[in-house]
Amino acid sequence: MSADVIDGKAFAANIREKVAAEVARMKETAGVTPGLAVVLVGEDPASQVYVRSKGRMTREVGMESFEHRLNDDVSEQELLDLVETLNADPKVHGILVQLPLPGHMDSEKVINTIDPRKDVDGFHIQNAGRLMTGQKSMVPCTPLGCLMLLRDRLGDLAGLEAVVIGRSNIVGKPMAQLLLNERCTVTITHSKTKDLQAHLKRADIVVAAVGRAEMVKGDWLKPGACVIDVGINRLEPEPGKEKGRLVGDVDFASASEVAGAITPVPGGVGPMTIACLLANTVTACCRENGLAEPEGLTA
Ligand SMILES: NC(=O)C1=CN([C@@H]2O[C@H](COP(=O)(O)OP(=O)(O)OC[C@H]3O[C@@H](n4cnc5c(N)ncnc54)[C@H](OP(=O)(O)O)[C@@H]3O)[C@@H](O)[C@H]2O)C=CC1
Ligand SMILES: Nc1nc(=O)c2c([nH]1)NC[C@@H]1CN(c3ccc(C(=O)N[C@@H](CCC(=O)O)C(=O)O)cc3)C=[N+]21
Ligand SMILES: [Mg+2]
């Protein structure tokens, strides 16, 4: 193996330490405690684990955590009412509504009901528009975490060729926008892209956000490329095992023979997403209270 393995877990722990120090300072100097509300609709076990670990880490950095669990047969109006209540609650500085929502709900409407100043996911149309036009915004957590890892590894990204695989509103598009803001030359690829491998062969930076287990192979990559694997895919369990292994969208074994650096799954982008969610909550709370924003926690 030639690639350096990027330790997202350690990097994320470092960010959470910075967040914790900031939270302590805010309590002491301004008497405010940042609060994060997480809304989970339905009983999906994987989502419940994710919400629990977010809640634990929120409390570990000294912030307040508010968890709201609704049955999946709740009406859209009841969810909208809860969002409005959280918008009006001065103890809540960040609101995350876990996606995907049940099919009978209009996710766009729910997201756009969140007060954009409390939209720590950065999914509200105002935040997406602000990011696109270079105005101060809340930046989506997963792309922000990826950017932090890339900057740490590569320094100035200007002029580098970046290929983003996937064009979702929550990962691919904001990721591409952040890389463009860094003045990379950015290509966004997707399921209708004709020759993905031809694009990847030129890429100094690859961000894979597809949702297809181990799709990207090592011989598709430019030697020395920096590979950020966003995918979270659960394989079928091996015989006698209850749970399948967690893998990314990149075939780690072959890719690590060719890449210069690569994030593992688990232990790469996932922990960064949670750390950036906490960082965004601190940022939102500082803005709300007219406090100086900490360095190094935003894009
Ligand atoms: N680590 C973390 O913190 C997070 C991880 N994830 C994970 O990241 C992955 C992507 O998530 P998300 O963006 O929400 O997924 P979506 O399903 O919304 O988007 C997937 C994208 O991949 C594209 N795609 C599908 N098949 C191919 C293919 N064969 N070649 C090229 N592109 C393809 C799709 O193209 P098209 O648009 O044409 O259909 C689409 O744009 C998932 O595994 C998810 O679990 C997500 C969020 C956070
Ligand atoms: N409104 C909203 N915002 C999101 O940011 C959001 C969402 N909905 N819905 C689901 C996806 C997925 N996502 C993950 C975040 C962290 C890990 C994570 O911490 N993963 C760990 C390990 C997980 C494990 O071992 O089970 C890791 O990769 O090391 C995974 C997945 C955020 N998402
Ligand atoms: Mg996110």
TrEMBL record:
Gene3D superfamilies: Leucine Dehydrogenase, chain A, domain 1, NAD(P)-binding Rossmann-like Domain. Pathway: One-carbon metabolism; tetrahydrofolate interconversion. Homodimer. One of its GO terms (biological process) is methionine biosynthetic process. This is Bifunctional protein FolD. SUPFAM superfamilies: Aminoacid dehydrogenase-like, N-terminal domain, NAD(P)-binding Rossmann-fold domains. PANTHER family: C-1-TETRAHYDROFOLATE SYNTHASE, CYTOPLASMIC (PTHR48099:SF5), C-1-TETRAHYDROFOLATE SYNTHASE, CYTOPLASMIC-RELATED (PTHR48099). Residues 140-287 form the Tetrahydrofolate dehydrogenase/cyclohydrolase NAD(P)-binding domain. Catalyzes the oxidation of 5,10-methylenetetrahydrofolate to 5,10-methenyltetrahydrofolate and then the hydrolysis of 5,10-methenyltetrahydrofolate to 10-formyltetrahydrofolate. Its EC number is 1.5.1.5, 3.5.4.9. Belongs to the tetrahydrofolate dehydrogenase/cyclohydrolase family. It catalyses: (6R)-5,10-methenyltetrahydrofolate + H2O = (6R)-10-formyltetrahydrofolate + H(+); (6R)-5,10-methylene-5,6,7,8-tetrahydrofolate + NADP(+) = (6R)-5,10-methenyltetrahydrofolate + NADPH. Residues 6-121 form the Tetrahydrofolate dehydrogenase/cyclohydrolase catalytic domain. The keyword ATP-binding does not apply. One of its GO terms (cellular component) is cytosol. InterPro entries: Aminoacid_DH-like_N_sf, NAD(P)-bd_dom_sf, THF_DH/CycHdrlase, THF_DH/CycHdrlase_cat_dom, THF_DH/CycHdrlase_CS, THF_DH/CycHdrlase_NAD-bd_dom. HAMAP family: THF_DHG_CYH. GO terms for molecular function: methenyltetrahydrofolate cyclohydrolase activity; methylenetetrahydrofolate dehydrogenase (NADP+) activity. It comes from the Bacteria. Keywords: Amino-acid biosynthesis, Histidine biosynthesis, Hydrolase, Methionine biosynthesis, Multifunctional enzyme, NADP, One-carbon metabolism, Oxidoreductase, Purine biosynthesis.
